[in-house]
Design brief:
This protein is 34% helix and 24% strand. The protein contains 17 helices and 18 strands. α8 packs across α10, α13 runs parallel beside α14 and α15 runs antiparallel to α16.
């Protein structure tokens, strides 16, 4: 700690000496002409050009050789070497490097050449400091390995771990590709409110805030579903939104309280149409961003080439339960079994969930523990129980089920879709059932939204809808284990007061 304090004082002393020399260590701008990537890409043209280039970036290495020195600077496109010779820049200017440190931002002007080792380099005719770094970068480059520190100080993580930067560049390209696909497919990008008088569209506990001017409590949205459906009622036939949503829930490798999701709705479509759309969407963006329909995720070779498997929910449970059908027919249990039998099955399977939870939640827990981890290749699980799907349309053929699917990939849930419920009377009944669950203590139950019901009463056409998490999609496409790796600034527990139940 004492050594660190001395380093900090040493850097501040250098800052002071720069100012004493009337050198502004924090100038207002620098007229850069080329990035490192542009110089490397166009070397043949630039090396034969008599004109000079102007580059700028963070100094990440420095090697002295008497009256010459080499340093590398890192900019947005990569890194490049700079060569400085005392005889060419002047002794007094050359000695300014005694006041520079690794981490400082520098600008350099000069011509481009290759060294004897073949490295493309800028021969500096002039240079200047653009920002003095008062804190040292992690030791020995690539030194920031502690995950907690990496997430809390993402700015340092991005400097020293270039692979992290690549993940976020892929994220940007994925979102751009999604937008292009949907725009080209006739969808209109829209915006819905983040602050809502009622929350809905998902099973989740909301964050609550207070609007002082209106003197009302408001909720940060848990989903944008109910507002996008209002737009379908209003005559927009294809809409989508890439939105920030917020759920007041635990944190683990797949969940962050603040996350990015996409929701889309298409009039005159059902869940079969949305399955085909989703297959085409993910396959197209994989080819565009990764150059292939195939990629690796957590040791598995994933293939997004359509068509994907489609397995009904009840059949998937029967297939993966560690109990033979002769001993337990889950379809029979679902239709004719008692709630107590479901609870006993949860206990028998040693699933860590409160057996007093509602029947639908118990069935969901069985699926998540017994089926989901086995779904590696892209798989649509279809036809969910109605008690698990309060906003989905009743199945046109199968009693007690809905026209809903979820996509699973690499053992992760990657999307949720319905033939949307557009019968206002049926929707009211479902909302009322949810309110009864809320009275019994279910903090994730849906609220009854009278204005949404009013919108449905004006008539919403048959509609297919889809929602999926952008963050999880980036995790899969970049072969990343934790959602914190793909969010610039993930929510973190307090250093002074660590939260319980947070999992990596």
């Amino acid at each position: 700690m004492e050594e660190t304090s001395e380093l900090l004082l040493h850097r501040r002393e250098k800052l002071k000496r720069l100012k004493e020399k009337n050198i502004n260590p924090y100038p207002y701008s620098f007229k850069r002409t080329h990035t490192s990537a542009e110089i490397i890409k166009n070397f043949e043209n630039l090396s034969g050009d008599e004109s000079e280039v102007k580059i700028a970036g963070r100094m990440i290495s420095l090697r002295r050789h008497g009256k010459t020195l080499f340093f590398h600077i890192l900019d947005g496109g990569g890194k490049i070497q700079v060569y400085v010779k005392s005889d060419e820049v002047g002794k007094e200017k050359f000695e300014l490097f005694d006041l520079f440190d690794i981490g400082d931002h520098l600008g350099a002007t000069g011509k481009v050449f290759k060294t004897r080792t073949g490295e493309i380099t800028v021969r500096a005719a002039d240079f200047c400091i653009l920002s003095k770094s008062l804190l040292p970068l992690p030791e020995k480059w690539h030194g920031l390995q502690d995950k907690e520190l990496r997430y809390r100080q993402r700015y340092v993580d991005l400097i020293v771990n270039q692979e992290v930067k690549k993940i976020f560049l892929v994220r940007t390209e994925l979102i751009k590709a999604i937008r292009r696909f949907l725009d080209d497919s006739g969808f209109v990008e829209v915006e819905s409110p983040i602050l809502q008088p009622l929350y809905g569209g998902a099973f989740a506990r909301p964050f609550t805030t207070h609007h002082h001017a209106l003197n009302v409590d408001l909720y940060l949205r848990i989903a944008d579903e109910l507002y996008l459906k209002r737009l379908i009622v209003g005559g927009f036939e294809k809409v989508y939104e890439i939105s920030k949503s917020f759920r007041n829930e635990g944190m683990d490798r797949n969940h962050n309280p603040e996350f990015t999701m996409l929701e889309l709705y298409q009039a005159y479509a059902d869940y079969h149409d949305i399955m085909e759309l989703y297959e085409k969407l993910l396959n197209a963006i994989s080819k565009e961003v990764l150059g292939s329909s195939k990629f690796e995720f957590e040791g598995n070779q994933i293939d997004l080439t359509p068509p994907w498997s489609r397995i009904p929910f009840l059949e998937s449970l029967q297939e993966h339960l560690p109990i033979s059908k002769g001993e337990l027919d889950f379809t029979r249990l679902f239709y004719n079994g008692t709630e107590e039998e479901i609870r006993q099955l949860v206990i028998r399977l040693k699933i860590q969930v409160d057996p007093k939870r509602p029947r639908g939640k118990l069935i969901e827990a069985i699926f998540e523990t017994q089926v989901q981890p086995n779904l590696i290749q892209p798989t649509f699980i279809t036809d969910y129980p109605i008690e698990m799907s309060p906003l989905a349309k009743k199945h046109r053929e199968k009693e007690g089920l809905t026209e809903r699917f979820e996509l699973f990939l690499g053992g992760c849930e990657m999307g949720n879709a319905f033939s949307e419920l557009n019968d206002p009377l049926d929707q009211r009944e479902r909302f009322e059932q949810q309110m009864e669950l809320a009275k019994k203590g279910d903090k994730e139950a849906q609220m009854l939204d009278e204005d949404f019901l009013r919108a449905l009463e004006y008539g919403m056409p048959p509609t297919g809808g889809l929602g999926f998490g952008i963050d999880r999609l980036v995790m899969v496409f970049t072969n990343t284990h934790s959602i914190r790796e793909v969010i610039f600034f993930p929510q973190m527990r307090s250093v002074e007061n660590p939260a319980e139940g947070e999992e990596e």
